[in-house]
Design brief:
By secondary structure, this protein is mainly alpha-helical. It is built from 10 helices and no strands. The radius of gyration is 19 Å and the shape is elongated.
Length: 210
Amino acid sequence: MAALKAPIEKQRKQPVQARSAATVDAILEACIQVLLRVGKEKLTTTLVAARAGVSVGTLYQYFPNKRSLLQAVLRAHLLRVTESFEAACAAHRGLPLCVIVAGAANGFFRAKMIEPKVALALYSVSSDVDGLGITEDLRLRNEAAFERALESAPEKLCVETRLAAFTMQSTMIGVSRRILEAKIPAREHEALREQMVAMLCAYAESVAVS
């Protein structure tokens, strides 16, 4: 029998006032700091609340447990990356295919690498908190933004847009994740970004109808 999938936790309370929103932001930032300091196994809601300067009871008003808290932190991080990627895709629509691809890839890579230690730490917790499930809507947004950008290029593709987009986005994700997991020094990131873009443009040109 297949293992039952753990349910996605929901925030108990949505912040509607500026003060409440600031409290949630402080809790999420504190969670990241504690995660970086002690790791996912030793992270507790008590430690996070203390770091955020709030009571555990206040934390529980918004997050019922550690799992829901980590899910919220992961989602907030990926939402920032998604918004950067969407903006990069929109900014390059209608331009030559390789320019679109390079612009989108640069937007994704730089957003992902702003805080490499945070991104790496969140990779480590993603599978524990059903990261794929809680961010399915963000995946769809990324795909839609990139596909719209590719379809706006003057060049036409000899493969389905969704297949080309999937191939290139998988490359972006794979390269950035490998850099993080291998703990490549920050001084080498720019050179690796250039290599990734060159590879993506070569692929894009190979599937473009001449």
